[in-house]
C-alpha cells in the first residue's frame, strides 16, 4: 500500500540522526505526510469513511503526540499532530515511525468511539478513562496480531531515547502519549 515515494521518505528518516532539542523530538513535514497516510489506512480499516477529517501539524501545550477534536453532528474532525514530542518523562523506548502509526491508530479509535463518548458526555473523566482502556486493548491487538501487519517494518535507527540504552529492545508504540 505504500508508494515508492513514501518508502523513500521512510528510508530517509531512518537513515538520519533524530532531531532533538531540550528533550523534545522535532518532527517535520515528512513525518506529517506519513502520519496522514497512517490515519487514512486506519480510517479505512475501521470503516470510518463517513468522517470528514482535516489534518493539522502544529504545536500544542498539552504534551501529547497527537490529538483529535470532533463534531458528530457535522461528522467533521480535526486531527493535530504535535510538532515537538516531549519525551523527557517517557518511561519506555519508542520508535518515531512506529509511534507515528500508533498515534494515527489511536486518533482513529477516538473517532470509532466518538458516538459513545458523546452520549456519555465527553467531559466525564470516567468515560475518557474507559475510552482509553478500550483503545489500549485495541492497540495491543493491532501490534500483536498476525492479521494486522505493520505498514512498514521499522528499523531501530529512529528509536528514542537516544543511545543511552543501546541494549534495550524497542517495545512497540502502544503506550505513547497520543491523546
Ligand atoms: Zn486519546
Question: Descriptors for this entry?
Answer:
globular; 179 residues; alpha+beta; three-stranded antiparallel beta sheet; binds zinc ion; 5 helices; three-stranded mixed beta sheet; disordered C terminus
Strand-helix topology:
Elements: H1 4-15, E1 20-21, E2 24-26, H2 29-45, E3 52-58, E4 66-71, E5 76-82, E6 84-86, E7 94-95, H3 96-112, H4 114-120, H5 125-144, E8 159-160
Parallel strand pairs: 3-5
Antiparallel strand pairs: 1-2, 2-6, 4-5, 7-8
Helix pairs in contact: 2-3, 3-5
Zinc ion binds at residues 106, 110, 132, 178-179.
- Summed up, the domain count is 1
Given the C-alpha coordinates, what overall shape results?
globular
Poorly predicted runs of 5 or more residues: 161-177
User: What's the total number of strands?
Assistant: 8
Q: By helix and strand content, what is the structural category?
A: alpha+beta
What hetero molecules are bound to the protein chains? zinc ion
Order of helices and strands: HEEHEEEEEHHHE
Distance between the termini: 27 Å
Amino acid at each position: 500500500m505504500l508508494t515508492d515515494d513514501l518508502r523513500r521518505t521512510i528510508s530517509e528518516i531512518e537513515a538520519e540522526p533524530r532531531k532533538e532539542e531540550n528533550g523534545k523530538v522535532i518532527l517535520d513535514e515528512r513525518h506529517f505526510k506519513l502520519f496522514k497516510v497512517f490515519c487514512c489506512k486506519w480510517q479505512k480499516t475501521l470503516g470510518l469513511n463517513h468522517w470528514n477529517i482535516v489534518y493539522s501539524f502544529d504545536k500544542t501545550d498539552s504534551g501529547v503526540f497527537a490529538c483529535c477534536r470532533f463534531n458528530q453532528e457535522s461528522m467533521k474532525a480535526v486531527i493535530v499532530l504535535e510538532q515537538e514530542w516531549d519525551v523527557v518523562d517517557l518511561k519506555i523506548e519508542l520508535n518515531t515511525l512506529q509511534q507515528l502509526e500508533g498515534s494515527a491508530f489511536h486518533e482513529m479509535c477516538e473517532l470509532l468511539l466518538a458516538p459513545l463518548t458523546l452520549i456519555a458526555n465527553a467531559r466525564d473523566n470516567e468515560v475518557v478513562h474507559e475510552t482509553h482502556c478500550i483503545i489500549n486493548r485495541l492497540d495491543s491487538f493491532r501490534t500483536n496480531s498476525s492479521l494486522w501487519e505493520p505498514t512498514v517494518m521499522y528499523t531501530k535507527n529512529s528509536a528514542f531515547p537516544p543511545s543511552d540504552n543501546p541494549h534495550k529492545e524497542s517495545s512497540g508504540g502502544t503506550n505513547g502519549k497520543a491523546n
